[in-house]
Each structure stands twice: as C-alpha cells, then as structure tokens.
Amino acid sequence: MSRLMLPTFALAVFFVGATEFMLSTMLSPLASAFDTTPAHASWLVSSYAFSYAVAAPIFGFLSDRIDRRRLLLASLVLFAIDGFALTIAPSFSVAIALRIFGGLASAALIPTAFALISDIMPANRQSAAMGAVMVGMTFGIIAGPVIAGILTEALDWRVPFLVTAVGCLLTFAVAHRVIPQSTTRRTETNMRRFGWLAKGSIVRFWVAKGLWNGTAVAGFLLAGEVLRQRHDLSVGIVGTILFAFGLGLLVGNLSVGWAVRRFRGDERTLMAALLLLCVSVGTFMIAPLPLAGALVCLIVWGFSLGLAAPTSTSVLARRSEDDKGQVLAVSESFNNLTILAVLPIAALQLEAAGPAGTMMVLGITLAVALLLTAADLWS
Fold it and tell me: DSSP per residue over 15-57, as a string?
C-alpha cells in the first residue's frame, strides 16, 4: 500500500471542505459579480448543501454496486469541471445550477472516499485512518475561508474556484496511481434486499450519529452570536476566537488512534467523546464563563467532535459490510437534515430566551443521541 494513499484521500476531502466553506467570505464579491445581494448570493451555499443532502444516498447506493475507485476519480474530475465553469457563468441562475452540480459531485466523493478506506485498510487501523483523512476536511473548513478571502481581495473572486479546480485535477492524477484497484466482492443478495435496514444496530447507530453530529454543528453555528451577546465583541474578534474550535477539531482527528487504544475500542472511545461533547456544549451555553473559559470550551467541543466523527464512521462502515457506501451516505444526509431542523429552532430560542433556551433545544437531541449510543454500547 502506498504511503501517499491516505494523504491523497485527505487532499480530496480538503478541496470539498474548502470549496463549501470558502463562500462564507465571498458572498459580497459574488453578489457584485452576479448583480444581486449578499442575501441572495447565500443561495450559492444553500443550493450546494441541499443537493448534497438529497444526492448522497443515491451515490452511496451506486458505490455499493460499481467500482468505488472509479466513482471517486470521476467525482474529482466533475468537481474540477464545476469550479472551472463557475468562473465563466454568465448569470446568477447558471451559477446556482453549477453549485447544485458541485453538490452532486461532493455527494459522490465524500461517502465513497470513506467507504474505500474501509475496503482497503485493516479493521484495527480504520478509525485512525479515517481520522487522518478527516484532517484534510478540517483544514479545508478552517483554511478555505481564509485563503479564499486573501485571493479574492488580492486578485479576483474567480481565483479561489480556479485553485480548487486545478487542485482536484492534480489530486485525480495522484489518486489514479496510488489508490489500488478494488478487490472487494459485493454480496448481491444483501444489495437487492437492503438488508442493513433490518439491522437495528446499524439504524440505531446512524440515527444517533446524525443527531449528535448535526446538533454539535448547529450549536457551533450559533456560538459566535452567543459570544457577541455575552462579551460585546466585534465580528473579527469572534472569528478569531471561533478558530479555537477548528484547532480542537484538528487535534481530535489526529488523536483517534491514541484514543481507540486508550479506551480499548471504537465504541468506548465514541461514548467517552460524546460525554465530553455534551459537557463542553452545555457549559459553553449555560455557564456565565469569562472569555478564557469560553475559549477552553470551544477547544474541548471541537476536540470531542474530532474524535467522535471518524470513530463513528469506522463503526458504521464495519457494521454495514457490503452496504457501507449507502449507509455512510445516508448518515451524511441525516447529519445535514438534523442541522436544517435544529438550527432554526435553536436560533429562535437564542433570540427569545438566550443561550439557556438554545441549550434546551440542543440538550434534547444530544440526550436522545447519548441514550441511543449507550444502548448500543451495552446491547
């Protein structure tokens, strides 16, 4: 197995993360370019996320029936084409259509990448491998907006899209050489019958994963407003403080192998990470913390999520066997649906009752997720 394989997977998901999140710093330039408002330009984000959520299960279904390696390589090329096309889009409606197309490409890429890791890596190394690859996504989320902002201000709004498109093509060239041909044999009976839907251990686990993952992200999206309300901070300072969450997420990704050895298994590691997640989110939202205390909570919040995400993905992949592509894709979609459901309710509670009201919403879904995970651990 090539030493470049995991870095190649990490680079692939880096460009997806960077392309998705870099628009947060580009809405005004994009609005000017397409003669619209920043509020309308935000549809470039929403259309991408929606198409991803809808299409991921479809591509997961396909990845269990065709060569995953070819699907991954094709999605990299399509993602690059989307980036190039956006730079010459003649109108805002065309740009929206292209973002939908980009969401389709990423929906094929992300679950397929992690399913491929499960196919290739030995079971005892899968969690650590997925954590290493998720470092790429984390770097994309953290660095994407910063790099895009610098390039847009110094050059042009098209340059970030050109950079990510070229990056995807270069990743394709490397991936074509280092990712081995699939040797996995699919079980046709399982694929026809969708046997995983009848397995309580899988369904219960991905429901729990969607609840805690989506809730943790929804809470983080409101963390900046909580900080502004409590400490009367500027947008720039809030953005700098929220970087602590990304730092914790990165350390969590890199610590997966150590944590699995320390807690003697993926499931125990996940349970410990979720307990830490609940404590850090609850403390941040409810306790009247000084700024330093909020910073620590954000780091621990990111760290626990950075541990939980790759560990849970490894467990799902291992349990799903021949259907891992579809199960991982459905799990990704459920994460996004949880965000779409929890975020507006939590935001309304923040406006009406402050952070404590927000925590009531977040606490309900986190508690359900924790109970489902605990039931799974001791079943």
Answer: HHHHHHHGGGGTHHHHHHHTTS-HHHHTHHHHHHHHHHHHHHH
> How many domains does one find in the chain?
2
Q: How many CA within 13 A on the CB side of residue 251?
A: 14
Output the domain CATH number for residue 282. 1.20.1250.20
Q: How far is it, in rounded angstroms, from Cα 244 to Cα 136? A: 17
Q: How far apart are CA 117 and CA 125, in angstroms?
A: 10
- The half-sphere exposure of 16 on its side-chain side, counting CA atoms within 13 A, is 32
| Contact (Cβ atoms closer than 8 angstroms) between residue 131 and residue 251 | no
Question: Same structural domain for residues 202 and 174?
Answer: no
Q: Is residue 189 assigned to a domain? A: no
Q: How far apart are CA 321 and CA 177, in angstroms?
A: 26
pLDDT, one tens digit for every residue, the chain (379 residues): 678 888 999 999 998 888 877 776 677 788 889 888 876 777 887 788 788 878 877 887 777 777 888 889 999 999 999 999 999 999 999 999 999 999 899 888 888 888 888 888 887 788 788 888 888 888 887 777 778 878 888 888 999 999 999 999 999 999 999 888 764 444 444 444 556 666 767 888 889 999 999 899 888 878 878 888 888 877 557 767 777 888 898 899 889 989 999 998 889 999 999 999 999 999 999 998 899 999 999 999 999 999 998 899 888 888 877 777 778 778 877 887 888 788 788 888 888 888 999 999 999 999 999 999 998 888 7
CB atoms within 10 A of CB 333: 21
Tell me the residue type at 329. A
Asked if 106 and 129 sit in the same domain, the reply is: yes
User: Is 187 within the bounds of a domain?
Assistant: no
Based on the fold, state whether residues 122 and 9 are members of the same structural domain. Answer: yes
| Same-domain pairing of 150 and 56 | yes
CA distance 214 to 121: 27
Kindly tell me the sign of the dihedral angle through the C-alpha atoms of 211, 115, 172, 333: negative
For the chain, what is the largest distance between any 2 Cα atoms, rounded to a whole number of angstroms?
60
Residue where a domain terminates, one of 181, 206, 231: 181
Enclosing domain of residue 254: 196-377
Provide φ and ψ at 34, rounded to 5°.
-105, 15
